[in-house]
Design brief:
Chain lengths: ~425, ~425
């Protein structure tokens, strides 16, 4: 059973590769008279502050001065992504880019850089982007000050990999099978700190044998690899027939690989266990097909075997004295009620509903004036985005949300899985 | 089932920490007029050659020039260990020390340094210190030239950990148990590339829960940790009663951890799966005791659950038509025969027998003149050291060995496990 974390739903999506344009941070620091330290006794830091005011103050974080000044680390003040000026979502007008490490240090909407003798004092520097040991929950972390233990901060990303093809819900009809039909598995792999991916392997028999995939090496820069590596593996389609799962694991140039199983941590960050796509044999109209199921889907998209497993476990652990239809009979609110299915229809720029904490909001009119940009709302249109909303919005924003309230979520009609 | 590799028996012992004294390699290179490259297009290398002539030529290897010149990598020409001049075993008169990477690059008995445009051309640079994918065996590696694929070379060590206490064969009598008796688990953890160990955890319930150990941090140097980290964890002694295994795993500052299970590779190198000590409840005279069993023991010492498992598996896979006592009845040699038990008695400086390929040698007289030093023989006195001997000795050395032959190993009386 996997406990709920207090972090975002990342899926396999918390890594990206783009072409960034900007100014090396070290040039700016040098212009300001900052010199690299020869004094290794005392660590100095470069602190970054954003203009985004969140429930616990402004977002901010820091890296060591040594890191910032290292010409091989490629730390950059970026103003362009893939040949275009940054959009608000990507941190317009200027943001940090620090290759190889966790995104949380790459402050968006940057408005302040300072060189200090200690780490950033932003609440978010300490309370986000940490991996705490698995037996530390929120209560214990706060009570015993685990957030401030230096070992648990995240900088470098670890080695990771994911499967992109077959996609979630992709099907292969048995009627298309022939002795020479092939399928090309595809995906990406990545490691932090500029470490190169040297090997990506697939198993179709629960780890008994591993098949070596082809790698598409991206260019190295000063002996470092900042980008994800694509992998692919062509296999006979019939290899799937006796297999219940496709698993991938990567190895980096430090000979590290991924653990087989997930280790829970409070923020739900940096889990890099083997990525598993389940293979189902199902009937689909008159066909018999193989259907592929990923563990979760990106963002708030429904589905995935981890989600299904989690819901099953929750159902099993529900108190025995709660009647199955309790939510229906106990409903007393007189506000309009909308089902998930109804909300899902309002999923575009001209008609955009969202659900937050079981309340439904029509925020169509708010889209063009959203401080976080248009896309930030639109990717959530027609979905329940409670977690995302609550994690990054201030109390002021939460009050403003109330203006757009139109009714409650009727979850008594949710399909039983 | 774990297949035999062509490498050494390392156990958990292929890592060490010592205080080295020497001259930074970059000083020597600078004196010789070598400058660091600004041209990142072309990698330059520093090649090291040893005076040890092996079956396939002199031992040698290389690292990049960039690495050699980096003042934070602490690459050193060492002449002292722990305050004393190097012994022959440790590479007298001078050897390489390259912190954080595999020992195979730290050439002993150093006699040549050259700066070149390509890697070392020593046979051993390519045919040793590689991790090949698990489906590549010796025949395929040689036939398809896997030794020369750049991705599979080892430099950085990966994250690893081991249990030292309880030791192999340590016992705790149940008669010593009381409600307040405690046991302190101890061991070491390590990661390559100067990456710090941030977390070491123990499980007594097969990974369902993990207990956080205490770490004894060693000093960092330029933000890098070159030494192993000791860990300890005090637990109530009765925690062992319902547990069949103690497992340890470490995490480093790049958020990498160890895989649960071993992945076979041809050289048997760099396996860093969870270290498991089995717990047996056995009678021991009149006592009932807990007895601890490590996976293997260092060097040629017998025992360990992996060894036992391996022998069992071999027995099960033996051809059915081989009579159980075949070795006895087929014996035809007229040379004297010695049992393992007899050989074991000759285990010291004044009386030193060894077994190589089922032949017994009395090499007492050779000890003081062994080119590899006294200790190299003495640690093998009274044991079967076929693998170690064959791996590092030249044909000339093998011929010389014949001088000391005294008889054959009688393995018909080996105890059945």
């Amino acid at each position: 059973m996997v406990k709920k974390t207090i972090g975002f739903n990342w899926g396999a999506a918390a890594v990206s590769t783009a072409i960034w344009k900007g100014v090396p941070l070290r040039y700016i620091l040098q212009l300001a008279g900052v010199k690299n330290d020869d004094n290794y006794e005392k660590t100095r830091y470069v602190c970054f502050g954003g203009t985004d005011k969140l429930p616990n103050g402004y977002y901010g974080t820091s890296i060591t001065l040594k890191w910032a000044m290292d010409e091989e680390k490629d730390v950059m003040l970026a103003y362009e992504i893939n040949g275009k000026r940054l959009t608000p979502d990507h941190g317009y007008p200027i943001r940090m880019i620090i290759p190889g490490i966790i995104g949380g240090r790459m402050v968006k909407w940057l408005n302040k850089i300072s060189v200090t003798n200690k780490e950033s004092d932003s609440w978010y520097h300490f309370h986000d982007n940490r991996v705490l040991p698995p037996n530390v929950d929120a209560e214990r972390a706060n009570k015993e000050n685990w957030w401030y233990i230096p070992n648990y901060i995240i900088y470098d990303l670890n080695v990771n990999s994911a499967i992109a093809a077959p996609a979630h819900d992709e099907v292969i009809p048995f009627s298309s099978f022939s002795s020479d039909s092939e399928y090309t598995l595809r995906g990406y792999a990545y490691s932090g700190g500029g470490r190169k991916i040297i090997r990506v392997e697939i198993t179709l028999d629960d780890g008994k044998t591993w098949l070596l995939s082809d790698l598409f090496d991206l260019e190295e820069r000063n002996g470092r690899t900042w980008c994800w590596t694509f992998w692919s593996l062509k296999i006979p389609t019939h290899s799937f027939v006796r297999s219940s799962e496709i698993r991938v694991r990567a190895w980096d140039c430090s000979q590290n690989t991924q653990p087989e199983n997930l280790t829970w941590n409070l923020m739900g960050m940096m889990n890099n266990c083997h990525y598993r796509v389940k293979i189902h044999v199902i009937t689909y109209g008159k066909d018999v097909v193989l259907r592929f199921e990923h563990p979760t889907q990106a963002g708030n998209n429904p589905g995935g075997w981890m989600v299904r497993q989690h819901e099953l476990e929750q159902k099993q652990s529900a108190p025995a004295n709660t009647p199955a239809n309790a939510s229906k009979s106990e409903s007393s609110s007189k506000d309009p009620k909308y089902t998930m299915e109804q909300v899902k229809q309002h999923n575009n720029e001209k008609d955009c509903w969202i659900i937050i904490d079981k309340k439904v909001y029509d925020c169509t009119k708010f889209i063009p004036i959203h401080p976080g940009g248009t896309t930030a709302i639109l990717i959530n249109a027609g979905t329940d985005c409670s977690e995302e909303f609550n994690a990054i919005h201030s109390d002021k924003a939460k009050k403003r949300l109330a203006t757009f309230y139109i009714g409650d979520l009727d979850d008594s009609k949710r399909p039983k899985l």
